[in-house]
Amino acid sequence: MNPFSSETRLRDMIRAIRACKTAAEERAVVRKECASIRAAVSDNDNDYRHRNLAKLMFIHMLGYPTHFGQMECLKLIAAPGFPEKRIGYLGLMLLLDERQEVLMLVTNSLKQDLNHTNQYIVGLALCALGNISSAEMARDLAPEVERLLQFRDPNVRKKAALCSIRIIKKVPDLAENFVNPVASLLKEKHHGVLLTAIQLCADLCTVSEEALEYFRKKCTEGLVKVLKDAVNSPYAPEYDISGISDPFLQIRLLRILRILGHGDADASDLMNDILAQVATKTESNKNAGNAILYECVETIMSIEDSGGLRVLAINILGRFLSNRDNNIRYVALNMLMKAISVDGQAVQRHRATILECVKDSDASIRKRALELVYLLVNETNVKPLTKELIDYLEVSDQDFKGDLTAKICSIVEKLSPEKIWYIDQMLKVLCEAGNYVKDEVWHGLIVVITNASNLHGYTVRSLYRAIQTSGDQEAVVRVAVWCIGEYGDLLVNNIGVLELEEPITVTENDAVDVIEVAIKRHTSDLTTRAMCLTALLKLSSRFPSCSQRIKDIVNQSKGSLLLELQQRSIEFDSIIEKHQNLRSALVERMPVLDEATYSGRRAGSLPAAVSTSQGNPLQIPNGVHKTAAPLLDLLDLSADDPAPQSSSGPNFLQDLLGGDILSSVSQSGTTQPQKSGADVLLDLLSTGSSLAQNGSSTADILSISQDNKNKTSVNALDSLSSSMANSAQSLPASSIMDLLDGFGPSPTVPNDNGPAYPPLVAFESSSLSLVFNFSKQPGSPHITQIEANFTNKSSDIYTDFIFQAAVPKKSLVMRIRISYKLNNKDMLEEGQISNFPRDL
């Protein structure tokens, strides 16, 4: 016999395929078998059509194309015999889906089989229709399916109910046709029919409000009675599972009661008693009983109910938490997270058990329990719960420390009753897991420390102790270095000692030792070392006796390969050596940082400072939403770790540019007024005349030292003036602000003044162009006026047009930002102009 002829049995083909040792051999066998089947299809072989289709189904399951056999399915379905129809419908469900056009040809055969006298053929048609029915087929065959819901055989009724579920999902408009038949099916004694009827009822309630109201009024009492009979029924071997009568039916009944009782007090009252009975009588030592109890708890939490039943449900979940099965505990934790919003006080009673779950060996349970504890914390229990979590932090797994520290820090920030407690808890977290906390955490801690003026001494002493034992935690080192730099004198002189503190003696050299160890530690990153250099500069003023030692430590970074450290070292060394008269003013303590403003910045709710826009989201052409940043972002002057923003624009700029420097300049004169925002912006763009009038102390910062007139200095502090500064120093403040903010009329450009410069195309896109025209004023060749001409190249109207520009001090480069609205949609254009004429 030819092994690849139509007479070959299915088992022989399967054996031949499984005997293949390589994929190539398998493909060869399948290819030959498919060729044989194609030949039989061409010859219209009726004797082996069912066998060929069975082979095609196996080949289809292996992943090979079998579309050429689709019509064979229709031929077998049209055959009169049950065996042929069975193979035909099976092939129809496997080889076709509702998107195939061939499916339209089978509708008539399905209709005939749904009206067939043989109930088994009717069952085949219902199975096929329930699996692959399209919307068109559902509309055509819905009357037949609706009629079969009243068929004499329960198996047909069950399949008709399942088929009806597919029909109402495909065509929700037909739902009203099935409401009355389903109501009669809910009175069935046959559990199989009842299960499918309940599922059909639930789907009808989902797609139709009218059906939901009908079932609430007509069927709630009947369903409660069915559930009561199921709970109290005697032993029935055909339905019994682990001593529980048909748990599948009970679960379905609880789910449909949940749907009917949600938002309806009358329906909820009808099911209160049976729910309490299920919750108290069901055994929880078997999986089937736990499944029923879980569904019962879900139903109690969803319906309109008094507090007593909910407390019972939460107690059941509490028992679940003590179960050995991890799956049951995980389900209980999930359910308790939902229950907190319903009855938080009842969940609080199980707080100890939930805390034990945080320490579980299973990672999924740990994370879910931690989320639940986070929701449980409030003002009354924040201290004991935080203590428990921090105690566990000491022994927790490395993989879990990140999540745990994030939750603890969030709890402490939100619910801290007092600043000293906040500082203590944060220090504990940083000492145990400082390498796992985000930068925002220790930034926020520094903000709180600056606001707690009465705790500065206590904090710096606590950090001094912490860094001795936890020097490997980067966050501890950073906060300690910052505080020692700011409050080192309080540490050495034991100022502000609290009663709860233990006495400690720290010398000036001890404080410097801490920072020297931190800056030389090989694991310290750039941020930590930069903070150490800044702290050393401040200590050089606070500890005059250690000034030379500090200078030597600072000088060690002059040869650093990191430009940031090298630059800081050179500048700080210059301050220590050449500008001792200014040093004390430069390194004064940081001003108090605004906690509310810092929190707003972290949440992204604070409007941008010094920007003409109000911080509204802008739609960038690439589709990314971006909040309008401050104008200072154009200059890239912000540090890697920016200081918290203060509540006013000028103060924010002072923090960004070095608040100590600006404050020292303002204090150097006897009657120096507070700088305005325009003055600060002038300082940003140039070393203009406003700074030149601030006395000899300011001149020491901005110009070459008078003691070294004949020497060429490359020191950054001695060479801040530049050609750009000279060109801008006489420009009125109003003109500068017009350039920055786009407000006010453009200055009049005088004609025929000085050398002529060609127009410069500063920016150009498909819809907008910007051209600069340059001119000089008579008698002022060092001042250049720029006229900006904007051209709308599109036919659309631009509104809320804002142009911003900024020029860094060190190079002749202009960075621009253009924002406007197009059809009420925010647009943003950015660019950099670096091709200005050289002799400008």
Automatic annotation (TrEMBL):
GO biological process: intracellular protein transport; vesicle-mediated transport
Cited Pfam families: Adaptin_N (PF01602), Alpha_adaptinC2 (PF02883)
SMART domains referenced in this protein's UniProt entry, alphabetically: Alpha_adaptinC2
Domain GAE: 755-840
Main location: membrane
Subcellular location: Cytoplasmic vesicle membrane; Golgi apparatus
GO cellular component entries: AP-1 adaptor complex
UniProt keyword annotations, A-Z: Cytoplasmic vesicle, Golgi apparatus, Membrane, Protein transport, Transport
InterPro entries: Adaptor_Complx_Large_Subunit (IPR050840), AP1_complex_gsu (IPR017107), ARM-like (IPR011989), ARM-type_fold (IPR016024), Clathrin/coatomer_adapt-like_N (IPR002553), Clathrin_a/b/g-adaptin_app_Ig (IPR008152), Clathrin_app_Ig-like_sf (IPR013041), GAE_dom (IPR008153)
Keyword Acetylation: no
Membership in a protein family: Belongs to the adaptor complexes large subunit family.
UniProt name for this protein: AP-1 complex subunit gamma
Organism listed in the record: Ambrosia artemisiifolia (Common ragweed)
